[in-house]
Design goal:
The chain is an alpha/beta fold. Helix content is about 35%, strand content about 15%. The chain is globular, with a radius of gyration of 20 Å. Bound molecules: zinc ion.
């Protein structure tokens, strides 16, 4: 069997949830060297919350022989976040980033408790951004404007807010999460060295047409919503060429009952064994009959850059010293995970599809 070896990958964008969902999904992320845990569900707003959540996730993810996967916690920025909270937060070397979720202007106006819903005006965070810049805390941005009614236009509508941040705080390292449009891909490619982006495997694979593939497909419904063929081509190009663009699964599990209903939840559940196999197939090919020439080494190098090397470089974390092996063999993705021992049933990315590459289970695991 044809095999390739890459440095162990990292996932700088994952939603681990809590309780039984955490118990189900965390072990399915054990493959990664480190994972950046998003702070929205449960909501994490300060250093104490971040460190407590880190321990919860580490317990749930477990160890792999001698290797303990690293959980990098984040906090959610609100209009109540202070520079002092950032300084305290930055004191722990595990803590690397704070996440900006935009909220509707109307929702926040005149409502004090609305300060916990997210950020309605980035200019009000000037002192917080200054504190993050000097402490070296990375700003992760969910770049979508919730005041734009059409979900297909929300990402580009948020670009002026992103530009305001990156131009006023050039020393602040910024990661624009899950970019999905040609407009945002071009912005990141042309931006200065402190601006990076993640791209999900689902935005690299699907377009909006895949939402209506033989009927409505609720397990492909996500935020940002899937875009056009042209947008997908632009993010694919950025994933290949731009050294500040890296993999981020945005794995966001919901129980099957929450997805398959009117008003179903957005989010795609993306276990490591699926995303790594899917990305291997996208970078390396391998459809039956395809033979690899000397180009395989080039494809392998780009794949490794995208999933294993660029994120640690930008985050200032060491890349993994150890490696994983993928082999060229057909493999069928499970139709669901969980559903036993009280665990929720969750339908994964590419459920039931056949992939061309498979992560070789670790002999120690
Ligand atoms: Zn996310």
């Amino acid at each position: 069997l044809q095999q390739i070896t890459i440095r162990r990958p990292c996932d700088p964008h994952v939603h681990f949830r809590f309780g039984l969902m955490l118990a189900l999904v965390a072990p399915l992320h054990r493959l990664f060297h480190w994972s950046l845990a998003m702070p929205n569900v449960p909501e994490i707003r300060d250093a104490d919350g971040a460190l407590d959540y880190r321990l919860q996730v580490e317990r749930a993810i477990g160890t792999d022989g001698d290797r303990a996967p690293i959980i990098v916690p984040t906090i959610k920025l609100t209009h109540a976040t202070t520079p002092r909270m950032i300084a305290r937060f930055a004191g722990d070397h595990y803590v690397k980033a704070a996440k900006l979720y935009p909220c509707k202007k109307g929702a926040a106006a005149g409502v004090t408790t609305g300060s916990h819903n997210g950020i309605h005006d980035v200019t009000l965070l000037t002192d917080v951004f200054k504190a993050m810049q000097s402490a070296g805390v990375i700003l992760c941005i969910h770049a979508e404007d919730p005041d734009t009614a059409d979900p297909w236009l929300r990402e580009e509508a948020y670009l002026p807010q992103v530009e305001w941040i990156t131009s006023h705080f050039p020393g602040l390292r910024v990661v624009i999460e899950h970019i999905s449009t040609a407009v945002m891909a071009r912005f990141v490619e042309d931006a200065h060295a402190n601006v990076a982006a993640t791209i999900t495997p689902h935005h690299l694979r699907w377009t909006r047409a895949d939402l209506y593939d033989g009927g409505a497909r609720p397990h492909r419904w996500c935020c940002p919503v899937l875009k056009t063929v042209e947008d997908r081509a632009a993010v694919r190009r950025a994933a290949w060429y731009c050294e500040r663009v890296f993999f981020g699964s945005d794995s966001a599990p919901h129980a099957i009952e929450a997805k398959e209903k009117d008003g179903g939840a957005a989010g795609i559940f993306a276990p490591a064994e699926i995303t790594m196999a899917a990305e291997a197939g996208r970078f390396l090919g391998g459809e039956a009959g395809l033979t690899f020439g000397p180009d395989l080494a080039v494809y392998r190098a780009h794949f490794e850059q995208f999933v294993s090397l660029r994120a640690p470089a930008f985050y200032g974390l060491a890349p993994a010293e150890d490696t994983i092996v993928l082999e060229r063999t057909d493999w069928r993705v499970p139709s669901s995970y969980g559903g036993h021992d009280g665990l929720p049933t969750v339908v994964p990315f590419l459920a039931g599809e056949t992939l061309w590459w498979r992560v070789v289970p670790d002999a120690a695991g």
